[in-house]
Amino acid sequence: MTVTDTLSQADELRLNTISDEQKAAWVMGLDQQIGERIDMASYAHSWPAGDGELLLPAPYDRVYVLYLCSQIDYYNNETALYGNDKAVYDEAMSEAMAWWRRQHCPDNTGNVQVMG
Fold it and tell me: Do residues 6 and 68 make contact, with C-beta atoms less than 8 angstroms apart?
């Protein structure tokens, strides 16, 4: 999923007047945080010029849309929606990080096994 894909999906779910630049900044910031957690560099920094792939693959890439929806609701003072969105986002992020650990866990010899 790219930054533009994320913006498009979130805009379909949440009516908003927030600029694409602000929403992209939120998505790229999240991708950078994820990159720090999994020790990988994010390539989404050049949006819109080079709309690179975000770090999490499908189906875990829904994290980005959930995060963006929660940010939109937060800044629109939709506190009930924000609380629900945040809970769903937190669960999705936990699932994504658990998947990442399973795919990149050390084997019994201490070597990292990267699984497809």
Answer: yes
